[in-house]
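Supplementary Methods. Inverse-folding protocol.

Structures were first reduced to a discrete structure-token string of length 281. This string, shown here, constituted the complete conditioning input.
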């Protein structure tokens, strides 16, 4: 897993090793061994590299030399989904979702807890029924953090206080995309694609024809929402009403990661390692 910022590319491995490379030259700057495997891309900001490991630990490393600045750890439930959400740096705060359905805001400076809120509360008789992992990356926009849990809720919370502005029942491990004008798009665990009204949590539309296609997190591309699936197809859906507009096959391998839009280009990576760039008209 890799992430970058402030002139660095930071790579985490299953061995727990974290390596920082110079963004311009690729030269190794430092490396650090952590307590467990790294399952989410590290984030860099405020002079720190924030790394989430599988044992429930969040570690801040110095962006300069890789020294450990602080640690924060939550207990991992006896049974959880494989994978973790990536941390988010917002101003002087770090936001992290955990396998117990909690979203935590920590001080970027010293790792102290600013607030701690439940997005989902475990319920049911069996460990499977009680799974409420936050494996989809939180998204921050205009002072609001949007987060979704498995077998839990989609929620919008105030970044500074953690106050819940609205929530609704939803289950997703893929992820979300936020339209800054009016909607939140969600790929749920049945591979339904949703448009949810920001501000109320009401459903605007639901596209159900991708059922069981293991769709990726959505990306917003102009007037469309784009998702990939397990057969390497990209599906283009109208943001206004959820109807299909186009479909194209990128590869025979699955598209698991969220497509990325930069400077008028859509980038798509498949599990076979193929990277495709599509110019947006």
């Amino acid at each position: 897993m890799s992430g970058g910022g402030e002139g660095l590319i930071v790579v985490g491995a299953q061995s727990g090793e974290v390596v920082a490379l110079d963004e311009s030259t690729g030269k190794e700057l430092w490396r650090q061994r952590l307590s467990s495997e790294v399952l989410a891309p590290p984030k860099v900001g405020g002079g720190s590299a924030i790394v989430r490991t599988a044992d429930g630990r969040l570690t801040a490393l110095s962006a300069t030399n890789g020294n450990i600045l602080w640690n924060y750890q939550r207990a991992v439930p006896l049974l959880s989904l494989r994978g973790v959400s990536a941390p988010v740096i917002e101003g002087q705060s770090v936001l992290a979702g955990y396998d117990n359905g909690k979203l935590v805001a920590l001080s970027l400076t010293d790792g102290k807890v600013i607030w701690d809120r439940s997005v989902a509360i475990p319920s049911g008789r069996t460990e499977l029924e009680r799974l409420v992992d936050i494996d989809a990356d939180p998204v921050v926009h205009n002072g609001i953090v949007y987060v979704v849990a498995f077998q839990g809720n989609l929620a919008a919370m105030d970044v500074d206080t953690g106050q819940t502005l609205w929530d609704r029942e939803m289950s997703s491990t893929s992820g979300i995309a936020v339209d800054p004008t009016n909607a939140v798009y969600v790929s749920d665990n049945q591979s339904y694609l949703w448009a949810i009204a920001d501000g109320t949590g009401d459903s605007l539309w639901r596209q159900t024809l991708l059922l069981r296609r293991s769709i990726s997190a959505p990306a917003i591309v102009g007037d469309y929402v784009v998702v990939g699936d397990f057969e390497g197809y990209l599906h283009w859906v109208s943001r206004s009403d959820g109807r299909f507009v186009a479909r194209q096959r990128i590869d025979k391998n699955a598209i698991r990661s969220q497509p990325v839009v930069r400077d008028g280009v859509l980038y798509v990576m498949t599990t076979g390692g193929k990277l495709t760039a599509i110019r947006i008209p």
